[in-house]
Amino acid sequence: MNWRVALGVVLLVAAVVSGWSAWRMRDRAAPTAAAAERSDYVLRDFELVVLDREGSESVRLRAPVLQRSRQDESLDIGQPLFLVPGEPGPWRLRADRAWVSPDGELARLEGNVEGDSDPAAPAPTAFRTTRLELVPGQNLARTDQPVRLTQPGIIQTATGLQADLRTGRYRLLSQVKTRYEPSARR
């Protein structure tokens, strides 16, 4: 057998194997889609303190999981608890999920959103809604969704809410209904 014939047979077998391999892989999805969805990093069971420009605590965040998007550098947070400084103590904002903008100036809480003022407040306040935007730099919480707000002796429902979490002042935007429930005499 001539070396040229042996080389030709080896090249023919290599061409057949590479063609067969390429034919089998033609229907597979490109791996870049999965790589693009991966997170830059993941935090588990963490507590994060965010400071404002003056160095004071702006917001404290606790959650079981946080993922940072590689594409837009936003944060996706599962079951977050935001503690926002207020008078006399912090507001507690909980939700099923939260998204935080890349610059940290906006947080969107979604699913079973609960906001509770400090129990030591003169009129402890709680609100419930399905979606809420938190602007930590302005101590502002707002929503355009139906909201239920309760204080001792008062239950209010409305569509839309804007609340200054530092001072505890809030504004219900539309379709406001108020029900007074005086406490029982002792």
Explain this structure.
The structure is a single chain. The protein is of the alpha+beta class and 186 residues long. It folds into two domains: 3-30; 36-180, lipopolysaccharide transport protein A fold, CATH 2.60.450. It is built from two helices and eleven strands. The protein has helices at 3-24, 32-37; strands spanning 39-51, 57-69, 75-78, 81-84, 91-94, 97-100, 107-116, 126-135, 140-151, 154-164, 169-180. It has a six-stranded antiparallel β-barrel with strand order 2-3-6-7-5-4. The longest helix has 22 residues, at 3-24. The radius of gyration is 28 Å and the shape is elongated. The termini are far apart. The mean pLDDT is 87. This is Lipopolysaccharide export system protein LptC. Pfam families: LptC. Keywords: Cell inner membrane, Cell membrane, Membrane, Transmembrane, Transmembrane helix. InterPro entries: LipoPS_assembly_LptC-rel, LPS_export_LptC, LptC. One of its GO terms (cellular component) is plasma membrane.
Give a summary of the structure in a few sentences.
Helices cover 15% and strands 52% of the residues.
Which SSEs are present, and which pair or pack?
Elements: H1 3-24, H2 32-37, E1 39-51, E2 57-69, E3 75-78, E4 81-84, E5 91-94, E6 97-100, E7 107-116, E8 126-135, E9 140-151, E10 154-164, E11 169-180
Descriptive labels:
single chain; 186 residues; alpha+beta; lipopolysaccharide transport protein A fold; 2 domains; 6-stranded antiparallel β-barrel; 11 strands; 52% strand; elongated
